[in-house]
């Protein structure tokens, strides 16, 4: 009895638990008497489809059938390994799903590395940013970035900052700046009214393109008889094109139709002389003399037109001979004197040397393809000629005297000699066919260095597109070191040469560059934890991520700024550093003391700062700001901190060669020397 009552209690308790309790909020609500079936079905459509899918374990073909894979729909005794090798052994009712799942897999690497597949992939990837001809070579060895619509090498993957300096000082570095754009103009009035020429030599000039009082960009000009070729930076390409269209100037666009290689270093001439096969004997004599005599005062910016003989097939790499140039400083032997023609040319430059048919051949050339048209392949069957098989020698037999040699043996000897002769002739013919050459017109522009020992002195070689990769590899294997954009700007900074657009604050390209760089710096700033960030309000730094040229300095034109170089003995100036006017009491201590910006009494905590707060942030400085540093760092040549920047033209101080600078993340002012450029 007790046992049956216990079972009854358990049954009653179970029945009470299975009954769902109605919430009190729903007890007084009455259900609608009429329901719209269509609306209810649409509202429950997703749930119903999922419910039916789970019940039937069927779904669209794609590998995942409900909660199971396709092969899991079969009974366990049918899930054999043979299905993975022969898909037709799978039952027909799930065969479509099995095939569709296999089609979704990525092709194997061997198929993905086929030449046609790779070229199609290159074409797809090239649509976003244009590739240079040497892109594949650079992409394997350097950090690549997208800049100005091109894919450009930034720096090598290895530690190369000091190595680049050594090569630029004692050897040769090469930089591919083929992203620069060339335009042919025929309007002399436009050149006279909108181009401000600064340097002249022969047919090559350097200057700036102006739109009234507005500076657009620096420009290189190569003059012809009735035409002018201007080479501009791609950051200002759109602005220059708009100016030409506004002035109705007829021009020929040579974008991506030329390659420009910059060779920098004291051995640049020696490397080019060993690599180039120049057709003109007089030009070849000039290059050979320049290679032998380093101390020749060759005019800066001199342009030399030449014709290179290039091979249609892969030619043997011509390495640079390992021998020192004969100069009075490096050898006790008195070298022979250079030719009289070279000396006359140095005294008075002959403009006819700059003539070249390069630009005429480029006018009607088709549009360049930005995708490599072929890939380097090695096929052992096609590399060597097929030589007829020589009959095998017979076994060793006793030597016979001359009269005893049979006629059959004489015939065999003659056949062997004939075969050997034919094979030699065939090899000669193949060698000649491989060395078939064609002419390539080009132009060399000499860049003379102002630094000691010919630092970064060299040439700019301009060639038509399509001939770059072969010549580039030849130069690399001959001893030149390839560099990226970072190293190229560092070499220019060592020579106190401003880089565009980094060091041209009044141009539109600089504003775009500054905004992009500020965005990157702000993102990196907020990636750090709040305890590791610099509180710019606390140290009274109003411009941590940008330089306020138009606000605090009130600059409206490039004529209101003066380019200067900064040298500091014990500190390193950085980009966007403030340049402040020193006071008379700052020069009492001759050891060069540092001065500290007082801390702000009221400042927001770091974790409360947002991006919007920097736009409304203002700070009161204890010193007058007269300029900013645009590029700075450590100079290996001067062995101290060095930089270039701009100050106000009307800057007036008691000490004209001294100024104070303050880095963006610092409170200290440091005394430094300035020199107006």
Automatic annotation (TrEMBL):
Biological-process GO terms, alphabetical: tRNA 5'-leader removal
Span of domain POP1 C-terminal: 596-675
Pop1 N-terminal domain mapped to chain residues: 40-115, 116-187
Keyword Nucleus found: yes
Localization (cell): Nucleus
Region (Disordered): 364-388
Database matches in InterPro entries: Pop1, POP1_C, Pop1_N, POPLD_dom
Residue ranges annotated for the POPLD domain, each copy included: 458-549
Keywords: Nucleus, tRNA processing
GO CC terms, sorted: nucleolar ribonuclease P complex; ribonuclease MRP complex
A Pfam family that the UniProt record links to this protein: POPLD
Source superkingdom: Eukaryota
PANTHER family registered for this protein in UniProt: RIBONUCLEASES P/MRP PROTEIN SUBUNIT POP1, RIBONUCLEASES P_MRP PROTEIN SUBUNIT POP1
Protein name: Uncharacterized protein
Species annotation: Blepharisma stoltei
């Amino acid at each position: 009895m007790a046992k049956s009552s216990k079972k009854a209690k358990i049954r009653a308790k179970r029945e009470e638990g299975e009954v769902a309790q109605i919430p009190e909020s729903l007890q007084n609500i009455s259900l609608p008497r009429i329901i719209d079936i269509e609306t209810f079905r649409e509202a429950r459509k997703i749930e119903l489809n999922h419910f039916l899918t789970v019940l039937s374990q069927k779904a669209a073909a794609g590998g995942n059938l409900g909660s199971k894979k396709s092969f899991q729909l079969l009974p366990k005794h049918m899930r054999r390994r043979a299905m993975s090798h022969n898909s037709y052994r799978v039952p027909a009712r799930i065969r479509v799903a099995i095939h569709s799942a296999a089609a979704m897999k990525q092709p194997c690497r061997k198929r993905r590395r086929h030449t046609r597949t790779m070229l199609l992939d290159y074409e797809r990837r090239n649509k976003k940013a244009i590739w240079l001809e040497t892109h594949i070579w650079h992409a394997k060895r350097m950090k690549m970035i997208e800049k100005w619509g091109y894919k450009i090498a930034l720096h090598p993957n290895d530690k190369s900052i000091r190595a680049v300096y050594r090569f630029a000082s004692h050897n040769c570095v090469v930089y591919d700046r083929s992203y620069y754009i060339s335009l042919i103009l025929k309007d002399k009035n436009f050149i006279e009214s909108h181009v401000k020429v600064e340097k002249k030599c022969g047919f090559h000039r350097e200057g700036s393109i102006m739109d009234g009082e507005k500076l657009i960009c620096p420009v290189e000009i190569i003059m012809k008889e009735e035409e002018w070729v201007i080479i501009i930076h791609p950051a200002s390409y759109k602005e220059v094109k708009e100016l030409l269209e506004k002035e109705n100037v007829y021009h020929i666009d040579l974008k991506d139709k030329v390659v420009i290689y910059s060779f920098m270093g004291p051995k640049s001439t020696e490397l080019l002389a060993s690599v180039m096969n120049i057709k003109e004997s007089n030009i070849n004599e000039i290059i050979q003399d320049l290679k032998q005599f380093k101390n020749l005062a060759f005019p800066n910016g001199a342009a030399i037109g030449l014709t290179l003989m290039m091979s249609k097939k892969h030619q043997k790499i011509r390495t640079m001979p390992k021998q020192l140039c004969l100069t009075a400083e490096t050898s006790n032997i008195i070298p022979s004197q250079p030719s009289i023609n070279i000396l006359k040319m140095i005294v008075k430059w002959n403009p006819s040397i700059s003539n070249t048919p390069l630009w005429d051949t480029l006018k009607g050339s088709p549009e360049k393809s930005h995708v490599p048209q072929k890939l380097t392949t090695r096929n052992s069957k096609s590399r060597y000629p097929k030589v007829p098989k020589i009959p095998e020698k017979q076994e060793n037999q006793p030597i016979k005297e001359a009269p005893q040699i049979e006629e059959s043996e004489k015939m065999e000897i003659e056949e062997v000699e004939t075969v050997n002769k034919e094979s030699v002739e065939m090899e000669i013919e193949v060698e000649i066919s491989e060395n078939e050459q064609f002419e390539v017109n080009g132009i060399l522009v000499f860049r003379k260095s102002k630094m000691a020992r010919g630092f970064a002195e060299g040439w700019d070689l301009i060639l038509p597109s399509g001939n770059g990769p072969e010549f580039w590899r030849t130069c690399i294997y001959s001893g030149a070191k390839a560099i990226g954009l970072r190293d190229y700007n560092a070499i220019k900074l060592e020579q106190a040469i401003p880089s565009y657009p980094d060091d041209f604050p009044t141009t539109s390209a600089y504003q775009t560059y500054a905004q992009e760089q500020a965005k990157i710096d702000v993102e990196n700033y907020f990636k750090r934890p709040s305890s590791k960030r610099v509180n710019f309000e606390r140290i009274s730094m109003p411009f941590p991520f940008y330089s306020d040229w138009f606000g605090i300095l009130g600059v409206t034109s490039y004529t209101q700024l003066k380019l200067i170089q900064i040298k500091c003995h014990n500190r390193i100036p950085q980009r966007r550093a403030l340049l402040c006017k020193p006071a008379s009491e700052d020069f009492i201590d001759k050891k060069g003391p540092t001065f500290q910006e007082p801390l702000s009494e009221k400042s927001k905590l770091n974790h409360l700062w947002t991006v919007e707060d920097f736009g409304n942030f203002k700070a009161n400085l204890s010193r007058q700001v007269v300029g900013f540093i645009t590029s700075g760092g450590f100079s290996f040549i001067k062995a101290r901190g060095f930089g270039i920047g701009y100050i106000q033209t009307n800057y007036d101080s008691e000490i004209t060669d001294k100024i104070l600078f303050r880095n963006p993340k610092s409170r200290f002012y440091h005394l430094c020397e300035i020199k107006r450029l």
